[in-house]
Design brief:
With about 700 residues, the chain is an alpha/beta fold. The protein is built from 15 helices and 28 strands. Among the domains are: about 120 residues, Immunoglobulin-like (Sandwich), CATH 2.60.40.10; about 120 residues, Immunoglobulin-like. An 8-stranded parallel barrel has the order 11-12-13-14-17-18-19-20. It has a 6-stranded antiparallel sheet with strand order 21-22-23-28-25-26, with helices on one face. The protein has a 5-stranded antiparallel sheet with strand order 3-2-6-10-9, covered by helices on one side. The longest helix is centred in the C-terminal third of the chain and has 20 residues. It starts with a strand and ends with a strand. The relative contact order is 0.08. About 0% of the residues have low confidence.
Length: about 700
C-alpha cells in the first residue's frame, strides 16, 4: 500500500476543493492540491509521502450567493472540521478573514478577494499513539456520582506549589497537588469547562479581554492548545490524555462541557474560518425567510444544524472520538435544547436523541443536558428522554428562594427528594436531576450571599450584561465587609446551601472554589475574565476557608456513608414494610407529621425531612441493608431561632446530631420528642441507627 495521508472533506454544494499544505519551516509556504475524487458529497484524495505533523487547510470553490445560503470564497483558508490538533492558531483579527468587504455598505452581500492564508488557523495531522496501559473508566454509578465543575486554567493558575510552567495546564490539573486536593474533597467526577479549541472574540481582544470560559468553539475534535504546558501539538495531546489517565487512576471520572449548539463564526457578519466556507447551507440552520440569515437559538449568531446529516454526523463522530480515543466518561451539553430542534421546534423524538440513544458507545456514558436555549419554547427542564440527566434549574431557583425566606416548603420538598415531579413520569431515576446552587455562569457561592446585584463593570459593558435576578440574601451589607457578625451570617448561609445540595437526592454539582470561599467581587458573568477574578486563590488558608472546606468534605463523607441520601429510586411515601415507617415523612416544629393544611401555608419556613434507612438498596455480602440509619434533616429559613420537637423513631431510638450549619455545636444526642433549638437560618442533620 502506498504510504501517505488520505484527506477528506464533506461539501454538498462545492464545485472544487483544494487541499492546502503548509511548511512552517519555510515561512508557512503553501502548496495547493485539488482533491481528485468525490464520493457521496465527500471530496478526498491520498497524498503520498506525508507524515504526522503536516500542517494543512482547505480552500473550497462554489457559488457565492448569500441570499441562497452559499458563502463559498476560495480566498479564505478554512480549518478542517475534523482536524485532531491545531497546528497554528488564529494569528490576528484582520479584514482578510471575512468573506465580504467589511467597509462596504452592503456588507455580507459583497465578495472579498483578499487572501487569509497567512493568518487563518491551520490543522495538523497527528499521530494518536499513546500508552494507555491498564486505563479504564471508574464507571461510577450515577447514584454515587458527585461532580466538581472547574476550569482547567483557572483551577491551578495561582497554585504556587506547582512549577510555573505547569500552572493553568492539563498537566497542572493532573499533578499530585491537584489530584490530592480533589481526592480529599471526595468528589467522584470533574466537569471541565470547554476544552475544545475556541477563539477569543475580536471585540473582547479590543478591550484587553479574552473568552475565558471557552464557549466559542471552532473545532470539535482539537483540544485547546492554550491549556497545554508545551507548544508541540503531539506532546500537548499526550499531556491531555495523560491527564485523563491519571484522573482515572485516582477513581475520578472526566466529563467535558461541550458546545455543539453553535460555532465561533457567528452570524452573517462573522468571519469565514471553517464551516461557513466549506458548506454554509449544510452545516448551519438558515432562516426560512432568507438563506442570508441564520436561525439563532444560542444567542451567539448561529445554530449548528442537526437536521442535516452532515451536522449530525459531525457531532456523533466528535463525541465518539472523545470517548474512544481520549477515554472521557461523559458530556455536559451546553444549551442542549438547541440540538433537539426539528422543523417544528423542540422534539423529544428528534434525530439528535435517536442517534445518541441507539449508539452502542455513547449510550453508555454520562449524558448531561443544559435543558434550555434562548429560543421560544427552549426551556425543557424535565423533558429530556430516558438516559439523560439534566442541570436542574428548578432546583437552583427553589433552594435559593427558600434560604432567602421567599420560597415554599412544598417546592423545596420536591427538590430535596429528587424532583420526581420532573423526572419520574419519563421512567427516569433521581440521578436525572443534577443539582446545583451555583455554577460557572452566575454568582459564586460567596458572592451569592454577599451581593444584592451584579457588578460586571470589568466586562466593559457598563454592567448591562449578566442576569441580575439570581442574588440571594446578602446578610445585611452588600459586598465585602469587616463586620464579623455579617461575615458569620454569610458563612452560615453558605453552609446552608452546601448542606442542602449534598443532602438532596440526585447528583450534586459543586462549583470549584466555593469550598475555598472564592470571590469574584460581585461579577456574575466572568466569561471574559482570564485573571484573578476567575482564578482560584491557593494562598495560605485562613481559619474560615479551612473550616468551610472541611465542612464540604464532611458532607461528601456523610453522603457516601448513608445510601439513603443517594437512592436509586424515588421515594414512594409508603411504609417500608408492615408496621414500619414511611420511606419519607415530613414533620412540623411541633413534632407531628405535616398535613395538607401545613403544606398550603405559604409562610412555613421551618420543617424536617425524615428518611427511613431500613430500605437501603445497597446490601452487604449477606444481603442485609448496608447502613440502614434513618436521617432527619431540620431546615429553618426563619430569621429567628426555633425550638423544634424531634420526630418519633422506630423503637424510640435516640437521635444523634451528626452535622449542623449553626455557628456552635448543639447537644449531640436527643430522644424522640425532645426539643432541639435550631438557630435562625440554619440546618441540622440527626442520625438514628435502627
Amino acid at each position: 500500500m502506498e504510504e501517505g495521508i488520505n484527506f477528506a472533506l464533506f461539501s454538498a454544494n462545492a464545485t472544487r476543493v483544494e487541499l492546502c499544505l503548509f511548511d512552517a519551516a519555510e515561512g508557512y509556504a503553501e502548496t495547493r492540491i485539488t482533491l481528485p475524487e468525490q464520493t457521496n458529497q465527500v471530496w478526498h484524495g491520498l497524498v503520498p509521502g506525508l507524515k504526522a505533523g503536516q500542517l494543512y487547510g482547505y480552500r473550497v470553490h462554489g457559488p457565492y450567493e448569500p441570499q441562497n445560503g452559499h458563502r463559498f470564497n476560495p480566498n479564505k483558508l478554512l480549518l478542517d472540521p475534523y482536524a485532531r490538533a491545531i497546528g497554528r492558531t488564529l494569528q490576528e483579527w484582520k479584514p482578510e478573514l471575512f468573506g465580504y468587504e467589511l467597509d462596504h455598505e452592503e456588507k455580507d452581500l459583497t465578495f472579498d478577494s483578499r487572501d487569509s492564508g497567512a493568518i487563518a488557523p491551520l490543522g495538523m495531522v497527528i499521530d494518536p499513539e499513546f500508552d494507555w496501559g491498564e486505563d479504564k473508566s471508574p464507571n461510577t454509578p450515577w447514584c454515587r456520582t458527585s461532580i466538581y465543575e472547574l476550569h482547567v486554567k483557572g483551577f491551578t493558575k495561582l497554585n504556587e506549589a506547582l512549577p510555573e510552567h505547569l500552572r493553568g495546564t492539563y498537566a497542572g490539573l493532573s499533578s499530585d497537588e491537584a489530584m490530592d486536593y480533589i481526592k480529599q474533597l471526595g468528589v467522584t467526577a470533574i466537569e471541565l469547562l470547554p476544552v475544545h479549541h475556541h477563539l477569543d472574540d475580536s471585540y473582547l481582544l479590543d478591550k484587553g479581554l479574552k473568552n475565558y470560559w471557552g464557549y466559542n468553539t471552532l473545532s470539535f475534535f482539537a483540544f485547546e492548545p492554550g491549556y497545554a504546558s508545551t507548544a508541540d501539538p503531539h506532546e500537548a495531546m499526550r499531556e491531555f490524555k495523560g491527564m485523563v489517565k491519571r484522573l482515572h487512576g485516582a477513581g475520578i471520572e472526566v466529563i467535558l462541557d461541550v458546545v455543539y449548539n453553535h460555532t465561533a463564526e457567528g452570524n452573517q457578519l462573522g468571519p469565514t474560518l471553517s464551516f461557513r466556507g466549506i458548506d454554509n447551507a449544510s452545516y448551519y440552520r438558515l432562516s426560512k425567510e432568507s438563506g442570508r440569515y441564520y436561525e439563532d437559538f444560542s444567542g451567539c449568531g448561529n445554530t449548528l444544524s442537526m437536521q442535516h446529516p452532515a451536522g449530525l454526523r459531525l457531532l456523533m463522530d466528535s463525541l465518539r472520538y472523545w470517548v474512544t480515543e481520549v477515554h472521557v466518561d461523559g458530556f455536559r451539553f451546553d444549551l442542549a435544547s438547541a440540538l433537539a430542534r426539528e422543523l417544528q421546534g423542540w422534539d423529544k423524538l428528534g434525530s439528535f436523541f435517536d442517534a445518541i440513544g441507539q449508539d452502542p458507545v455513547l449510550s453508555t456514558v454520562k449524558l448531561i443536558a443544559e435543558p434550555w436555549d434562548v429560543g421560544m419554547g427552549g426551556y425543557q427542564v424535565g423533558n429530556f428522554p430516558t438516559g439523560w440527566a439534566e442541570w436542574n434549574g428548578r432546583y437552583r431557583d427553589e433552594v435559593r428562594m427558600f434560604w432567602k425566606g421567599m420560597g415554599t416548603a412544598g417546592e423545596l420538598a420536591a427538590r430535596l427528594t429528587g424532583s420526581a415531579d420532573l423526572y419520574d413520569h419519563s421512567g427516569r431515576s433521581p440521578h436525572a436531576s443534577v443539582n446545583f446552587v451555583t455554577c460557572h455562569d452566575g454568582f459564586c457561592l460567596r458572592d451569592l450571599v454577599s451581593y444584592d446585584g451584579k457588578h460586571n463593570e470589568a466586562n466593559g459593558e457598563d454592567n448591562r450584561d449578566g442576569d441580575n435576578n439570581n442574588a440571594s440574601w446578602n446578610c445585611g451589607a452588600e459586598g465585602e465587609t469587616d463586620d464579623e457578625g455579617i461575615k458569620t451570617l454569610r458563612l452560615r448561609q453558605a453552609r446552608n446551601f452546601l448542606a442542602t445540595l449534598f443532602l438532596s437526592q440526585g447528583a450534586p454539582m459543586l462549583l470549584a472554589g466555593d469550598e475555598r470561599w472564592h470571590t469574584q467581587k460581585g461579577t456574575n458573568n466572568a466569561y471574559c475574565q482570564d485573571n484573578e477574578i476567575s482564578w482560584l486563590n491557593w494562598g495560605k488558608e485562613d481559619e474560615e476557608v479551612r473550616r468551610l472546606r472541611e465542612f464540604v468534605i464532611q458532607l461528601l463523607e456523610l453522603r457516601a456513608e448513608l445510601p439513603v441520601l443517594s437512592r436509586k429510586t424515588f421515594f414512594t411515601g409508603q411504609p417500608l414494610a408492615e408496621g414500619q415507617p414511611k420511606d419519607v415523612e415530613w414533620w412540623n416544629v411541633e413534632g407531628r407529621v405535616m398535613t395538607q393544611e401545613d403544606w398550603d401555608a405559604g409562610f412555613v419556613r421551618c420543617f424536617s425531612m425524615v428518611l427511613a434507612g431500613g430500605n437501603s438498596l445497597e446490601t452487604d455480602e449477606n444481603g442485609a441493608p448496608r447502613n440502614g440509619s434513618s436521617v432527619c434533616v431540620i431546615l429553618n429559613a426563619h430569621h429567628e431561632d426555633i425550638d423544634f420537637v424531634l420526630p418519633a423513631t422506630a423503637g424510640n431510638v435516640p437521635w444523634k446530631l451528626r452535622l449542623t450549619t449553626q455557628d456552635e455545636e448543639a447537644r449531640s444526642n436527643l430522644d424522640a420528642g425532645g426539643k432541639h433549638t435550631i438557630q435562625a437560618r440554619s440546618l441540622a442533620v440527626f442520625i438514628s441507627e435502627n
